[in-house]
Specification:
Blueprint lengths: L1 E10 L6 E3 L21 E2 L2 E2 H9 L4 E4 L23 E3 L5 E3 L5 H11 L2 E6 L6 H12 L5 H8 L10 E4 L12 H13 L10 E4 L7 H11 L5 E8 L15 H28 L6 E9 L18 H16 L4 E7 L9 E4 L2 E4 L1 H9 L6 E6 L4 E3 L4 E3 L1 E7 L5 E7 L6 E8 L6 E6 L19 E2 L3 E4 L2 E6 L3 E7 L1
Parallel strand pairs: 1-21, 2-5, 2-13, 5-8, 8-9, 9-10, 10-11, 11-12, 12-13
Antiparallel strand pairs: 1-16, 3-4, 6-7, 14-15, 16-19, 17-18, 19-20, 20-26, 21-25, 22-23, 22-26, 24-25
The protein binds alpha-L-arabinofuranose.
EC number: 3.2.1.55
GO biological process, one term: polysaccharide catabolic process
Pathway: Glycan metabolism
């Protein structure tokens, strides 16, 4: 393997490390928002432990309020005194009553507390152009206007800064079951009235394709590419099939290998959607925004099937590392990615139960990888040994490298094999490096996960399997592991 430390291949936007919080199950309510009167320790109604955990991840951007929920969310129901807010049924997610206690003001305050940028997704499926237009006015207009005055009456004098705005979500499915031709026209119309007030500049994100729907991307880019800044793409890693999902735990080695293969599929999807985007946007002005990714398993037994609550094991850690490596590789086109979802839903970094919290293996990978945020992406030249288990041979090693502003080099390595270690020799070119340190996340049990009873079963540890001499890095990568090395 060669690491070309002097060859920058672009910049890894920190927004690739974005998150997503939907009004779904116990993500917003219980997971983030408990209200000021809760017995659970909170800061202005937000769980203090969750704030601390998410802050520690250096979350750059948070997407809200959905997801499918976005296309039936009516923002005016979520402002003003909480007791008076209209209640609604969350028809997508468990049919539960949504009391709208967490609305626009609460979301922006959450972003302030997390020191991250907001990304709001508007309602195209069941909302009007006027409703979307007025939401943007409410949030970002500084002068005198019906919406800005209403915001002030609700306690917020200054407009908020809002850059990322999604015009609908999954409009091929839960967001209206539209054809791309129809959505492209709606996108053009709705986005027209999302105005740039004062010096606030929206980065407008069109609802993109589902998985490998290349016709959707082609149509959107052709008909509406010049009106957008970003196009979203959703792809979940689902062992089994959409109809017959498998469990988060209790998997065998074949399930492990299948999951690795499905995670790697993200590379092909980005490559092929990007090739279409390149035809219409060779300058790569329009970002491919992977605003939903992660594992999707059967929900934990005994939990509400509409809540999408699942455990998270070492296998999820590998899925996370593989995805981040792929996003880095495509950083010229992938301007943002958002893991689904931040707390208690799907591949969550944080799980809660009552006043307890656990950090999942996915959390630890995100934390270990956060050193790559905003770095120069470096070229790695290598042929991975192969991992064959079941039908499909896969590369055994997924890797990525970057350099930060101080010249430190970071190399992340994922060993996808459930059973074989790998000995790697890496020639570091174009940089004087004298020392290497590292951290590893692994376990002898492929199903290792953290629970409320045993929250520290799998955690990052110091890695001592790497050495550096005369620009040659040697590294023994254990099976089923994620490693982040720092060379200086
Ligand atoms: O993340 C869960 C759901 O998955 C989202 O609401 C939807 O956009 C996607 O289908």
């Amino acid at each position: 393997m060669k690491l070309k430390a002097d060859k920058s291949k672009g910049r890894i936007s920190r927004h690739i490390y974005g998150h997503f919080a939907e009004h779904l199950g116990r993500c917003i309510y219980e997971g983030i928002w408990v209200g000021e009167n809760s017995d659970i320790p909170n800061t202005e109604g937000y769980r203090t432990d969750v704030l601390e955990a998410l802050r520690n991840l250096k979350i750059p951007v948070l997407r809200w309020p959905g997801g499918c929920f976005a296309d039936e969310y009516h923002w005016k129901d979520g402002i003003g005194p909480r007791e008076g807010r209209k209640r609604m049924v969350n028809t997508h997610w468990g049919g539960v009553t949504e009391n709208n206690h967490f609305g626009t003001h609460e979301f922006f305050r959450l972003c302030e507390l997390l020191d991250c940028e907001p990304y709001i997704c508007g309602n195209v499926g069941s909302g009007t152009v006027q409703e979307m237009s007025e939401w943007v006015e409410y949030m970002t207009f500084d002068g005198e206007s019906p919406m800005a005055d209403w915001r002030r009456r609700n306690g917020r004098e200054e407009p908020w800064r809002l850059k990322y705005f999604g015009v609908g979500n999954e409009n091929w499915g839960c967001g209206g079951n539209m054809r791309p031709e129809y959505y492209a026209d709606l996108y053009r119309r709705y986005q027209t009235y999302t105005r740039n007030y004062g010096d606030n500049r929206l980065y407008k994100i069109a609802g993109g394709p589902n998985v490998d729907d290349y016709h959707w991307t082609e149509t959107l880019m052709r008909e509406a590419g010049r009106f957008m800044d970003g196009l979203s793409l959703h792809y979940y890693t689902i062992p089994g099939s959409w109809e017959q999902k498998k469990s988060a735990l209790g998997f065998d080695e074949a399930d492990w290998a299948e999951t690795m293969g499905k995670a790697l599929h993200m590379d092909e999807l980005i490559t092929r959607h990007s090739a279409i985007m390149d035809q219409y946007d060779p300058e790569k002005r329009v970002g491919l925004i992977i605003d939903e990714w992660g594992t999707w398993f059967l929900c934990e037994p005994g939990t509400n099937p509409g809540f999408l609550y699942q455990q998270n094991s070492l296998r999820d850690a590998l899925v996370a590392g593989i995805h981040l490596n792929i996003f880095h590789k495509h950083c010229g086109r992938v301007h943002m990615a958002n893991l689904a979802q931040a707390v208690n839903v799907l591949q969550a970094p944080v799980l809660t139960e009552g006043d307890k919290l656990v950090l999942t293996p996915t959390y630890h990978v995100l934390e270990m990888y956060s050193v790559h945020q905003d770095n120069e992406y470096l070229e790695l030249v290598f042929d991975s040994p192969m991992y064959t288990h079941g039908s499909q041979p896969l590369p055994q090693i997924s890797a990525t490298a970057s350099r930060d502003g101080e010249g430190r080099i970071y190399l992340s390595l994922c060993n996808l094999s459930h059973c074989d270690g790998a000995s790697l020799t890496i020639q570091v070119e174009g940089a004087e490096t004298a020392s290497v340190t590292g951290r590893i996340l692994t376990h002898s049990d492929l199903e290792a996960h953290n629970t409320f009873e045993a929250p520290d079963r799998i955690q990052p540890a110091a890695f001592r399997g790497a050495s550096l001499a005369n620009g040659l890095l040697s590294c023994a990568v254990p099976a089923a592991s994620v490693i982040v090395l720092e060379l200086s």
